[in-house]
Design a protein that fits this description.
The complex is a heterodimer.
Chain A: H1 2-19, H2 24-55, H3 58-96, E1 104-117, E2 120-125, E3 138-140, E4 145-152, E5 157-161, E6 168-173, E7 179-184, E8 191-194, E9 207-210, E10 222-230, E11 239-244, E12 253-259, H4 260-264
Antiparallel strand pairs in A: 1-2, 1-12, 2-5, 3-4, 3-12, 4-5, 6-7, 6-9, 7-8, 8-11, 9-10, 10-11
Chain B: H1 6-19, H2 33-44, H3 51-65, H4 71-90, H5 95-120, H6 131-153
The chains are: A alpha+beta, B mainly alpha.
Chain lengths: 276, 157
Amino acid sequence: MRLVACVILSFICISIDHSHSHLSTVRKTLSAAIYPLQAAVYWPVKAGGGLVEHVRGRERLIADNDRLREENLMLRSKAQRFSALQKENRRLRELLDSSAQLDQEFGVADIVAIQATAGSRQMVINKGTRSQVFLGQPLIDAYGVIGQVAEVGPFSSTAILITDPKHALPVQVNRSGLQAIAVGVDRKDGLELQYVPANADVRIGDLVVTSGLGQRFPAGFPVGEVTAVDEPQGDAFSNIVVTPSAQIGRGSEVLLVWPRSEIEGGRMSAVTDIRH
Amino acid sequence: MGKAAVIPFSFAMAFMLTAIPVPDWAVSWLPAWVALVLIYWCLATPGYVGVLTGWVLGLLLDVMHGSILGQHALGLSVVAYVTLIYHQRVRIFPLVQQSILIALLLFIYLAIMLAIYNTLGSIDYGYNYLFGALSSALLWPWLFVILRDLRRRAALV
């Protein structure tokens, strides 16, 4: 009797969730219940890291400090050039009468858990609606794009990674400007460029960046490097493998990206839902 | 009710084991921890744990995996139901025989999950998703002994 009730209830849930996603509030509430457990798995790792920092000693810290100071100096000088270039770019765009590219703002979030199961690559981070995280928000690290926010709770949110086989990312090849869609590959932490014609101009070593199409990811963020190009005989499309430049699964922090318009002009409407 | 606290505790452990990140090659061999613990408590204490528990746990698992809400709920309530029907016979079987039955039961469970993933999802999951049944069955004797110890220490009948 109970089984019949549960089975019927499950089917109702499945059909509602599959067709509309009206159950996002249920999902949000339950995810708040799961969150402590996910955080608890990573707690020993974090505590261990803290302990290592403690006993690492003065000299290592001084060396680290020196290295970081140098790096900071280098990055600052690069940033100076960058801001000059940005101004020039904006001026040229105005001359061409095309809309200026938007600036972004960044915020740091800690990775709480990485969920890698067959057919899905997800990540839980410790920021939610309380920190203005929104659905579909891009996540990057110092090296490239990581993913986007798929579910938001009050204190935490779940992001789908670009290596998830259900995730598709509009990209372009930086050298040739060729547009493509990068889709995650199951069981390999890599991406695949889909529907690229067999004779297209793509070479091994090409940098792949976000194209900004689809209006979810800002244009120009590095996605990865082409590591294999295979043109099978008699096939209209070539197989192109891209290795992500972001350190997915290796860092412990990510950057959340807020487009400037999002901050000034109120909320973007909740963007199209992500398929399960 | 105080001594029954080991049950939620063991389920919390099962969820944590599910959340542990593993390398890519191991993903399809990941044991179905929550299903295993659910089977144990259905065998040992059918008065406390049943179909409804399975359903709620499944819903939590759905949220954790980001799968369609109700998918694992359906699977785990079926698992709990089948275990409850046969619990009096299965609990006195030797561990090896139990393992074989559990491999069968989890094979059915994972097959239901696979069928739902493949019919409703946008990508096709391979059949190596079913390897989880094998690794779970191999782990069963150890899990059984550990959970039995836990149950006896809590003096839960």
